[in-house]
Amino acid sequence: MKYEVSEILAGAALIQMAFFSYFLVRKKTENPIPNHILAAFLFSNVLVLSNLLVFRFIPDSPRTHHLYYFGFSLSVLWGPLLYLYTRSITHACFRLHAAQFLHGLPLLACLAFIAVRYWQYFIASGPMTALQRTGLTWIEHEIFNSAIQLLILFYTLLAFRDLFRYRREIRNSMSSVERHNLSWLGAVLCGLLAHWAFDAVFYVDLYLTRHASMLLLDISFAVLLVFAQILVYKSMHQPEILFGIESKPKYRDSTLTEVEKKQYLEQLETVMTGQKPYLDPMLTLPALARKAHIPPRYLSQVLNEDLNRNFFDYINTHRIEESKRLLKENAKQNRTVLEILLEVGFNSKSSFNSAFKRYTGMTPTSFIRSA
Predict the structure, then answer these.
(1) Which residues of 233-267 are buried (b: 16+ CB within 10 A; e: fewer)?
(2) What gap in Å lies between CA 69 and CA 52, rounded to an integer?
(3) Structural domains of the chain, with CATH
(4) pLDDT for the residue numbered 222
(5) What residues contact 146, with CB distance under 8 A and at least 6 apart?
(6) Under a CB-based contact definition with an 8 Å cutoff, are residues 69 and 135 in contact?
(7) Backbone angles phi, psi at 241, to 5 degrees
(8) Each residue of 331-347: pLDDT tens digit?
């Protein structure tokens, strides 16, 4: 029997995802919820791909048409599960609760629709019509596929929204965000969008010409295979999420007075000037709050409301000022820019250069020449 490229790719993706989902469930972690959600996402892919391959190799009949749609309906879960996974790793206090199971309603609606059609065609009395022999009508088939594609797109965009919110939020808690900005998750979501785009073009082409190019399906499965590998590998090696998106509006219930704010600002300035905690590349807001003897929530409030800066910008401003001082003195000490940027708390040359230009309007090299 001759196998199509899409079938080989689908089989490879199926085996890989089945192994990864089992490994994620078995892996011992302090917070197993993200791994379990990711395992559910991968396993839903396994079931859909299995459904595709099984019905490729069994005799065509009216019943197989209907049963195929039962299995294909599970792809409705892809969007909600990836969205919940994104929330679970961007929200420090994420917990599954009853309301989140409402994301499964589209699946129940799809299964109910297919079940009604199945009952109409095979249980209700009456002669078999042409409609019964083909499963769904052409219009029903297109609506069914379009609804699934739109759901995947909708939930992927929601996942992007949570990721962008998380990246903005960690700047209120961390002074170095390169290791915690989940750039790999952004790449994975872009990969899923690419997989969705090829599938969408395939179905549109199929709708318009009734004979879609299999090359689109081959590329779609290849993207899915690569995307699954990146997703699982990166999720295994991501640093622990310490600061997530806050569910409540900031400072709404704060009792901090103006007098206390002024006192905290003085304490903060004393610590920043005397101890220079910003030289620590791994400095976090709670760590600085302990040094300044300020409750972390009040420190965040003072920075945002009185200084109009998040924690990331506040710390990097001090680092840049310190680096400017060292660069001016560099003629005597003969140190490299790399040595200076590491000394003031930056982790990489690229982050130092971009921060330096952002705060001073010039590159470190231009600053040295002008000095």
Answers:
(1) eebeeeeebebbbeeeeeeeeeeeeeeeeeebbeb
(2) 10
(3) 5-237 (1.20.1070.10), 258-370 (1.10.10.60)
(4) 73
(5) 203
(6) yes
(7) -75, 120
(8) 566 778 888 888 888 88
Quote the pLDDT of residue 166. 85
Q: Using one digit for the tens of pLDDT, what is the confidence trace for 255-276?
A: 788 888 889 899 999 999 989 9
Task: Classify residue 284 by its DSSP letter.
Answer: B
Chain centroid, CA 24 distance in Å? 17
Please state, in angstroms and rounded to a whole number, the distance separating the CA atoms of residues 276 and 19: 49
Residue 58: half-sphere exposure toward Cβ, Cα within 13 Å: 13
The secondary structure of 106-149, three-state, reads: HHHHHHHHHHHHHHHHHCCCCCCCHHHHHCCCHHHHHHHHHHHH
Paired tokens of 204:
């549109």
Query: What's the CA gap between 142 and 136, in Å, rounded?
Result: 9
Place of tokens 């019509």: 129
* Rounded alpha-carbon distances, angstroms, from residue 286 to 36, 139, 173, 258: 30, 58, 8, 22
- Give the pLDDT score at 155: 92
Q: Is 201:216 a contact under the CB 8 Å cutoff?
A: yes
- Residues 130 and 347: their CA atoms lie apart, in Å, by 67
Which residue in 113, 109, 131, 112 sits closest to 121, CA to CA?
131
Taking the whole predicted model, whether its pTM rises above 0.85 is answered as no
Rg of the chain in Å (alpha carbons)? 27
- State whether the Cα torsion 167-169-173-175 is positive or negative: positive
Q: Nearest 5°: phi and psi at 250? A: -70, 140
Residue with tokens 């965040």: 300
CB 121 within 8 A of CB 134: no
Q: What is the largest CA-CA distance in the chain?
A: 97
Chain-centroid distance of CA 275 in Å reads 37
pLDDT of 254 over the 80 cut: no
Cβ neighbour number for residue 370 with a 10 Å cutoff: 8
pLDDT in tens, 33-87: 888 888 888 888 888 888 777 776 665 555 556 667 777 788 888 889 989 988 8
State residue 355's pLDDT score: 86
Distance CA 365, CA 353 (A): 9
* Comparison of pLDDT for 335 and 221, the residue scoring more: 335
